[in-house]
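It is worth pausing here to work through a concrete case rather than discussing structure prediction in the abstract. The textbook approach is simple: state the sequence, then state the predicted structure, then interpret. We follow exactly that order.
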Amino acid sequence: MSAVNSLYSLTPMTGRTSGADRTTVIGTVEMKWRTFWIAIFAMVPGGILTAVFYPMIDGYSFLWIAITEGLAFYLIERRSKEGLRLRTYQAFFDKKRSNVNEFYLCGQRIDVAGEEFGTVRQITAPVDRGKASRKTEFTTFEDFEESLR
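Step two, the predicted structure:
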């Protein structure tokens, strides 16, 4: 019987986004693919602004490229310092869409007006082996609590 090589899926162990922090050499620069695509897409508005302002301010118009690149990386790559550490644009949209009695958490609408509040109860009880046998089938939680007294 010959040995057959096994193939294992590592996704359950490493997660879907395990490759997000991997870097690769693009051209002559080592960076993440996400960084590369942000830089490429931010060039479009930077190039448009440079073309519009070039006749007015000449060489200084190329600062628009640096400004749009910096703004794109600030909005997309930066994460908030507190809470769920959302990306800046996600936190901005969540805050903008929130109203009275509802808020957004990671893009999901949470309505607090329809929620009912209750009491968290202890659902475990110490077992006392010295007592006689007790009723073991309860119809409500209150019956169970009463049997403990």
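Step three, interpretation. The mean pLDDT is 77. The first strand starts at residue 24 and ends at 26.
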